[in-house]
Every structure is written in C-alpha cells, then in structure tokens.
Write a structure and sequence with these properties.
It contains one helix and ten strands, in the order αββββββββββ. By secondary structure, the chain is mainly beta. The strands form two sheets. The protein has a six-stranded antiparallel beta sheet, with no helix packed on it. A four-stranded antiparallel beta sheet has the order 4-9-6-7, with no helix packed on it. A hairpin with a 5-residue loop joins strand 6 and strand 7. Its EC number is 4.2.1.108.
C-alpha cells in the first residue's frame, strides 16, 4: 500500500517548464500500468502535444481552457469537473484562458523524468 499526502508530493519529481509545472506523484517505479501527475499550466499558454507512447486522461480541477483535436477539428471547453481522454498518437492542442490545474493519468506509466520533445511527446 502507498499513501501520499499533498505535502509529501512536494518530494516527488517535479518538472518545471516555461508553460507548466508537473508533479509526478506516482510513476513506473511504483506501478507499471499507469502514472499520476498533478500538472498546472500557466495562464494564456498553448501546448501542442502528441504522446507517442501513452494514453492520457485528465481531470480538470481548476481553471479554464480549450482542447483542440487536430484530426477531427473539434474544440472542447475545459473547466473544473471536465474529464478528457487523449489516445496515443492523437495530436492535440491545449490552450489555457486561466491558470489550469489537472490530475493526469498516463498509461502505461511514465518514468517521471520525461520532458516534452519537439513533437510534444515523451
């Protein structure tokens, strides 16, 4: 059994980039099936993403933004309480209108030290 509290999450691997900060709370070290990250994307930022090795599920808990699906052209409003799923190799764009915070689940699990490459993947 593993139990983490918010203060203990501060001791987890934290990735800080210009547009976001991501706390990697549960990684492949503990679980090969999925990893859990708490990610905060700063206000008025745009991220072009396409995860080549993972599906991603996000539960938005704070802030507002938009999710754009390049394949279908669909745009979705993101706000607290929204859950979205992006499949592996699905190009998408995340645009924030406010600081936006979400709980992200990646499957299979991430190692925890990954950073986005030029394609928006890891």
């Amino acid at each position: 059994m593993k139990v983490l509290t918010t203060p203990e999450m501060k001791n987890c691997t934290t990735i800080t980039e210009e547009k976001f900060t991501s706390i990697r709370a549960i990684t492949s070290q503990y679980n090969k099936l999925f990893s859990i990250h708490e990610t905060t994307v700063h206000k008025n930022k745009t991220l072009e993403l396409c995860y080549e090795n993972h599906d991603e599920y996000v539960y938005v808990i704070e802030g507002r933004g938009e999710l754009h699906n390049y394949k279908t052209g669909e745009k979705h409003l993101l706000k607290p309480g929204t859950i979205y799923h992006v499949e592996k190799n699905e190009r998408h764009l995340l645009k924030t209108h406010e600081r936006m915070r979400g709980v992200c689940i990646f499957t299979p699990a991430c190692k925890g030290d990954e950073r986005h490459n030029e394609n928006g993947s890891y």
